[in-house]
């Protein structure tokens, strides 16, 4: 009975500490944008349209690069933010190659920070935030022997939910370096596509933009509908590799 009470108390303490950590994190995530919004409204007014964004970025070109990279980092940390829209804006503002470069730098730092942020917050906080059953399923995949190949397929195929994987990786047994490498390589085709669409839109290349957009939508639909088949294929490929 005493052991049961002791375990229950330890769990309550861990939950309390996890809530405090999450509140601190949310304070930073919400507090910084709120501070800018209420104290520098003129800064926000520069982002009402693509033309205004482009004008602002041209006016403050060097500083804007760091702002964009910061936003891309934030997009990885706050996984519900749409990364494609941000990368489209990068292609529009900086051209394809520079837009891709700044995006991949932001994604790299964002993945690194989120990985260790999840490790600092711990499993209890992740369960509170994402739901224990769903999150445990992600961690189980990353702790399995087939983790690397499944991870690559998940990041490569559009339409497969992947936002939780960075957080799950942080509390799993997977190492940082291979996770970072595989996730970046897997993300690259979709990331390049988003940046290219922004660049095409800026250069009035509407035919190419429409074709690329159709390809992206079709790929996303296939990824959503066939995600289980892709994952089974990854499993079979892994089994063949280890024989």
TrEMBL record:
Topology in the lipid bilayer: Multi-pass membrane protein
Domain VTT: 81-199
GO CC terms of this entry: plasma membrane
Residues that span the membrane, as ranges: 16-38, 58-81, 93-118, 147-167, 179-200, 206-225
Broad class of where this protein is predominantly found: membrane
InterPro entries, per database record: TMEM64, VTT_dom
Keyword Transmembrane attributed: yes
Family, similarity comment: Belongs to the TVP38/TMEM64 family.
Entry protein name: TVP38/TMEM64 family membrane protein
Organism listed in the record: Sinanaerobacter chloroacetimidivorans
């Amino acid at each position: 009975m005493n052991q049961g009470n002791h375990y229950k108390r330890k769990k309550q303490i861990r939950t309390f500490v996890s809530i405090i950590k999450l509140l601190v994190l949310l304070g930073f995530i919400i507090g910084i944008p709120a501070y800018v919004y209420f104290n520098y409204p003129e800064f926000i007014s520069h982002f009402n349209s693509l033309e205004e964004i482009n004008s602002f970025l041209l006016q403050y070109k060097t500083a804007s690069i760091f702002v964009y990279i910061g936003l891309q980092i934030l997009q990885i940390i706050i996984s519900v933010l749409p990364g494609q829209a941000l990368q489209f804006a990068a292609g529009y503002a900086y051209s394809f190659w520079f837009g891709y470069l700044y995006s991949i730098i932001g994604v790299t730092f964002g993945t690194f920070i989120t990985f260790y942020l999840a490790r600092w917050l711990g499993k209890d906080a992740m369960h509170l935030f994402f739901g224990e059953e769903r999150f445990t399923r992600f961690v189980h995949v990353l702790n399995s022997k087939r983790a690397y190949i499944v991870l690559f397929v998940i990041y490569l195929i559009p339409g497969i939910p992947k936002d939780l994987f960075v957080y799950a990786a942080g509390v799993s047994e997977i190492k940082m370096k291979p996770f970072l490498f595989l996730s970046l390589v897997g993300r690259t085709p979709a990331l390049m596509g988003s940046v290219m669409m922004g660049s095409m839109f800026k250069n009035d290349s509407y035919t190419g933009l429409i074709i690329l957009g159709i390809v992206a939508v079709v790929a996303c639909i296939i990824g959503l509908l066939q995600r289980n088949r892709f994952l089974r294929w990854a499993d079979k490929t892994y089994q063949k590799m280890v024989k």
